[in-house]
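User: Show me an example of a complex going from sequences to structure tokens.

Assistant: Sure. Here are the input components:
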Amino acid sequence: MAFLDGVADAASRQFPAFLSGLGITIELLAVSTAVGLALAVPIALARLSTNPLLSVPATAYAYLFRGTPLLVQIFIIYYGLPQFDVVRTSAVWPLLRDPLPCALIAFSLNMAAYTGEVVRGGILAVPAGEREAASAVGMNRALALRRVILPRAFRIALPALSNEVVLQLKATSLASTVTLIDLTGVGRRLAAKTYTAEGLYVAGAVYIVLTFAIARGFRLLEARLDGARTR
Amino acid sequence: MKTPVLNSLTLGLVAALALTGAARAQEKTVRIGTEAAYAPFEYKDDKGELKGYEIQLGNALCAAAKMKCEWVNADFDSLIPALNAHKIDAILSQMSITDDRKKAVDFTNQVTIAPARFVAKDGSGITDDPATLKGKTVAVQSGTTHEKYVTEKLAGIATPKVYQSQDEAFLDVENGRADATLADATIEYDWLQKTGKAKGFAYAGKPLTDPAIFGDGTGIAVRKGDTALADSFNKALATVGSDGQFKTINDSYFPFDIMGSGAAKK
């Protein structure tokens, strides 16, 4: 079939380009997920805090980043910030000059806002009996949090977290709008050169494989955690 | 087995389809694709309305050809795929007539000339001589002849930085992320007048002439084999060229003449 031949041809001829695009996509996903998750726990705890000095800024942050499109955030960080001379003469300019750090900042902050909500939900869903049991055996709040509440909350939130990671994978495609040549960028460049959508089909197929791998990885993690509990 | 009832039903359906088809052919709307981020040729004003040199020209052409036209705004690099997917019927978006594109679409006669030229900071030393671009980053728009020139002719010399729109390319040149941009000298003229000049930017070197890459001016692209539409546009072009409409439009945007050979000038 001519169509399939075209797609196969696009994939094989542009293999090095797709490979480097895949590398950038994975880097964007891995770094933003790691940073996002690391920030998610303090954000969730701050949102749950009874101290307004913690809960108000954390809630404002979550609303700001979940209330604006990711594309707008990337554009503001990449194109918007350098419009101020202060930014261009500051120490962070060498970092912000490159599109990769700009995209990583946007994706990480976005991921933190969304997963912060997921972790918060997980913490709230920890059964009251388990909290009480923790304090009954004499654990103080910090210890109970570390040994009982957070591990349980993490397991409860895991399916929702896997969803966030899959969504994040697709969100990284917006990096192509700030001159990063990720998977989507390679597909688009190819499509622009050949006037067909073949490059985009190849990119789409790779995203499906990645999504499958992520879902499978989380399934294994869930099974492992459940095994540890029932052992 | 076909029953007579079914047969007549089919017949009726075919007839109805044929009728609507005929009716549609008569009042067919020509959908013209354009990338409305290319001031002063095609852009959206503060109210979101399409404005510009080619919007006015396109409307004049449609009026001269007595066609009902409708504008469709899309990214430049998606225009040819959209044309071949029948989402649009023509492209009027400063698209250069190149051999590469002629493999995918047909073009009308030349609508405008389109010299390509570098723009950089005044005094940067950058000219049209490739030696002056060694190690430099050049901002270009995706899917353009300019992208092709930098990726192919300046391979190993300058690094292309590819943007979805020329507006974004200008923005990043301003922000200091690229050393120069390569685009149509016409759109650069508009940008230099509005923002660039005040920020110390200027044309760098002479206009580039490499017909193998830059082609022969711009034209209106139509689907391969759609000669009827191409002919209508060609006739209309000659009309607006000879009755002075084209010149009026041209002069209201540029102090120089960019009218192509397709418009028989007075």
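The lines above are the inputs; the final block is the predicted structure for all two components together. The first helix of chain A runs from residue 2 to 13.
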